[in-house]
Amino acid sequence: MSSLPSRCARTLFCRSPWLAIALAVLLLSTVRVDASNREHTISAAALIREVAAVYGEHKPQVVTLQRTITDSTPNQRMYFVELRGHFRKGKLTARYLLFSALAKRWYVWGVVGENGQHHPVWIVDVLPRPNSS
């Protein structure tokens, strides 16, 4: 131990090189997992386009876009979205569309169409994924 420089001798990593290696492996695996998680995230813009298109609007205006995480465990990245446009569900029309969505996979819920005075016109519990054509 006397051959180590005095500053190095006082640190835990110089005394236990295996601890330093284990910490480095742990940090690298965390970075790799985090990078792989980002690869599968649905962008907010793509999600907004797809949900708005279900209701006949192809150029919605984003009023609110909030990125957050779910309350349930495991916490997942999600979006709260409010759009302005001309939305249709059958014969019903709405000026605003509000919804929540997961960022990692298609799961859109709490879809609310509102009129110009922000009164609900329709509510959809869970929006099925539209058919890709």
Helix content: 25-40%
Please mark out the parts with pLDDT under 50 across 5 or more consecutive residues, or reply none. 29-37
Strand proportion? 35-45%
What structural category arises from helix and sheet content? alpha+beta
Largest sheet: 5 strands, antiparallel
Task: Summarize the helix and strand pattern as letters.
Answer: HHHHEEEEE
Rg over CA atoms: 24 Å
> Average pLDDT, to the nearest integer?
82
Strand order of the largest sheet: 1-2-3-4-5
Number of strands: 5
User: Count the helices. How many?
Assistant: 4
Any chance you could write out the topology, listing elements then pairs?
Layout: H1 6-9, H2 12-15, H3 17-39, H4 44-54, E1 61-69, E2 77-89, E3 92-102, E4 108-114, E5 120-127
Antiparallel strand pairs: 1-2, 2-3, 3-4, 4-5
Structural description of this entry:
- With 133 residues, the protein is of the alpha+beta class.
- The protein is 32% helix and 36% strand.
- It contains 4 helices and 5 strands.
- Strands 1-2-3-4-5 form a 5-stranded antiparallel beta sheet, with helices on one face.
- Strand 4 and strand 5 form a beta hairpin.
- It starts with 5 loop residues before the first helix and ends in a 6-residue tail after the last strand.
- About 7% of the residues have low confidence.
